[in-house]
Amino acid sequence: MREIGAYHYGDVNIFISSICLVYAAPPFYELANYIILGRILYYVPYHSPIHPGRVLTTFGAISGIVEALNGNGASYSSNANIPESKQQIGRDLLKAALVIQLGIITSFLMLAVYFHRRCYKANLLPDNLKAILYTLYASSALIMVRTIYRTVEYFSVAAIRVGPGFDPMSISPIIRYEWFFWVFEALIMITNSVLLNFRHPARFLPSSNKVYLAEDGVTEVMGPGFADKRNFLVTIFDPFDLIGLIRGRDKKNRYWEEQEEANPSALRDEMVTVQGGKPLKN
Questions:
Q1: Contact of 14 with 35, CB cutoff 8 Å
Q2: Is the pTM of the predicted complex or chain greater than 0.85?
Q3: Which of 13, 29, 141, 264 is most buried by its number of CB atoms within 10 A?
């Protein structure tokens, strides 16, 4: 779309579409990372600081807000045919979206690192788990770099004031030179696409989210999966189930303990040995 716009720079619709697509794409990659982390937490449930399903619903809900801000902000700010007041609203929406996006990525990485640290302390990091975590970190880092670039760029654009005696050379180089876009936007997003395809999560995680890694770190077990009977809205606003922690309700979700205590022989029958990151049936 950007290439088409280079030859039809008088068409405002192409320009608006290009801007919207550029700002809308990264949150979808973030959404993929939320799903990946959720699957990782399902895989090692006893070290998960949050219900695995809440990763997607909580971060996804916030990202939905960011997408709405991105879409409306990009369309308003790039349309010179609407009143200046609406263009300013669009610029403010984009600023808010970019800042919120940085906060989301930071919070997401903190959650992933906290989980990783708990696994490390428990000496529970088989090759497949390390591989998918490193892939997640790399993808999140790429999106973070891109978002920082976009934030700096857009705040630089918003600071431009054209008037008598305006010197174009006073504009930030990040705006004047397009190579910034190709390196920190296009190249980074392509790299992220290649990364997630080359190191696809399916290579490192079981197909079912009911399969979890036993606490010995070398076997996989088919379990009943997580259950959360709370109201959907409650799970979004209290993803960590802090009330449940206080009341002791979280203990009811420790199915990996109950399953082994109830029928250890049946549990052994469902075990799968993990070697070199690849599960092998016993």
A1: no
A2: no
A3: 29
Scan for tokens 């991105």, then name that residue.
Answer: 70
Domain count of the chain?
Answer: 2
What token pair was written down for 17?
């579409």
Single-letter amino acid, residue 55: V
Give the model's pLDDT for residue 277. Answer: 47
**236-264 confidence digits (pLDDT tens):** 666 666 565 555 555 546 666 665 555 54
Co-location of 168 and 192 in the same domain:
yes
Which amino acid makes up residue 267? L
Does residue 153 share a domain with residue 119? Answer: yes
Name the domain boundary from 173, 203, 233. 203
Give CA–CA dist 119/113, Å, rounded. 10
* 250 and 115 fall within a common domain: no
d(CA 206, CA 279): 8
> Is pLDDT above 50 for 267?
no
Please report the DSSP string for 131-186 in residue order: HHHHHHHHHHHHHHHHHHHHHHHHHHHHT----TT--GGGS-HHHH-THHHIIIII
- Reported as half-sphere exposure (CB side, CA atoms, 13 A), residue 217 has a value of 13
Higher pLDDT, 118 or 258: 118
Last residue of a domain, one of 185, 203, 221: 203
Cβ atoms of 199 and 128 within 8 Å: the answer is: no
Kindly state whether residues 22 and 162 are assigned to the same domain. yes
- Name the β-bridge partners of 213: 220
pLDDT digits 0-9 by tens, 135-175: 999 999 999 999 899 888 888 877 777 777 777 787 888 88
SS3 270: coil
Residues 90 and 170 in one domain: yes
Q: Are residues 153 and 253 in the same domain?
A: no
* Domain range for 259: 211-281
